[in-house]
Every structure is written in structure tokens, then in C-alpha cells.
Design brief:
mainly alpha; Helix Hairpins; minor pseudopilin epsh fold; 2 domains; three-stranded antiparallel beta sheet; globular
Length: about 200
């Protein structure tokens, strides 16, 4: 079995002006696709060839000799989750169960925003900001490079890519402006809520 590039859940121009079609051309069409191509080559004719991304991530995390497989598998998974963490006309305050759990576990929406901004802005170099479930409790965390919550036993709920290729064509070095746009205009709370329903 080889992995294929999943369709974006919206047209490439749909997130503009917050994320441009040009950024998605590079980010999805080149970066995401390259991780996918690399992963397929690395697992070909191995005992991981017919396994799921989640299984590959869990079985290769922390194993130095398999770091290439882990990095590419995790980046394929992370990017697919990231595309689904956004939608046109998204952002703002959520409602329903996820809003209630943000209130209960994080001290309310404003506290979530503050923590999520901090996670994204203070991730040195490349990485990700996440909203995760840790033993039933919502938490904000950040991970470097390709690392993701699955490798730590957490359930991802929402992610924001803070690698430079996610925002540099649109925001140059202004990562905080990209983070602000993501939170206010792009978060797909419906997808985040659906992750809670799986638990």
C-alpha cells in the first residue's frame, strides 16, 4: 500500500486573504506532497508498508534509526490534520461541547487564545501549536519539527502549522500576524468538535 495526497477540503483560493492560493500551491502541492513521496519510498518493502499513518508514527517515534520514516509520516499526518483544522469563514468563539470544555479546562476562550498564541509564537524554529486531549482534559501544547501529540499518547483536536513555509509568502517574518489571522478567521471548530466526539 502506498499513501496518496488527500484532496484539500476547500479550493486553494478559499482561505484568502488570510492564506493565499500561492501559499497553498507551495505548502500543499510541494511540501506536503514531498513528505508523502519520501514516506512511500522509505516504507516500501518494509514491515510498515501496509500499516496506517498512526501506527507508523507510534512505532517509529523516538527510534533514531527510523527518524526519517517518523519525520515524513508525522508530517503527512500533521499537514492533513492542519488542512482540516481550517475552513473559509472560520475562527472566533466556538459553541457547544468544545466551548464548554475550553471553559472548564482552559479558563475560557480568551485564556485559550492567549495560550494558543503563546504556543505558536514561542515555538523556536519550525513546529506546531496544538489543542489536545490529555486523559480527557483539554490542553494547549507545542511540538518541534515533525513531532505530534500521537507520539505522546494525546488526542489531537486542533493544530496550527508554524513552520515558515506555512506563512512566509503572505506574512514574511510576521508570525504573530499569521497566528492572529488563523485564530480569528480560519479555525474550523466543527472539525475540532468532531475530534472530541471520537473520545
Amino acid at each position: 500500500m502506498s499513501f496518496t495526497l488527500p484532496e484539500l477540503p476547500y479550493p486553494k483560493e478559499a482561505l484568502a486573504p488570510h492564506i493565499s492560493e500561492k501559499t497553498l500551491d507551495f505548502h500543499y502541492g510541494k511540501h506536503h506532497n514531498t513528505y508523502l513521496t519520501n514516506l512511500n519510498k522509505l516504507i516500501q518493502d518494509t514491515d510498515l508498508a501496509n500499516e496506517s499513518l498512526e501506527y507508523i508514527i507510534e512505532k517509529t517515534s523516538g527510534i533514531t534509526s527510523k527518524s526519517g520514516i517518523f519525520n515524513n509520516a508525522a508530517q503527512v499526518w500533521n499537514h492533513t490534520f492542519y488542512w482540516n483544522s481550517m475552513k473559509p469563514g472560520g475562527g472566533g468563539k466556538p459553541s457547544g461541547r468544545i466551548a464548554e470544555e475550553i471553559d472548564e479546562h482552559l479558563g475560557g476562550y480568551d485564556q485559550f487564545v492567549e495560550q494558543f498564541k503563546k504556543a505558536g509564537a514561542t515555538q523556536f524554529g519550525s513546529g506546531w501549536a496544538w489543542l489536545v486531549l490529555n486523559r480527557g482534559v483539554l490542553e494547549v501544547m507545542k511540538t518541534p519539527n515533525a513531532d505530534n501529540p500521537l507520539a505522546h499518547g494525546f488526542t489531537p483536536v486542533l493544530t496550527m502549522d508554524v513552520w515558515e513555509h506555512a506563512y512566509y509568502l503572505d506574512y514574511q517574518n510576521r508570525r504573530p500576524d499569521y497566528i492572529e489571522a488563523f485564530i480569528n478567521n480560519l479555525i474550523n471548530w466543527d472539525h475540532a468538535s468532531s475530534q472530541l466526539e471520537k473520545t
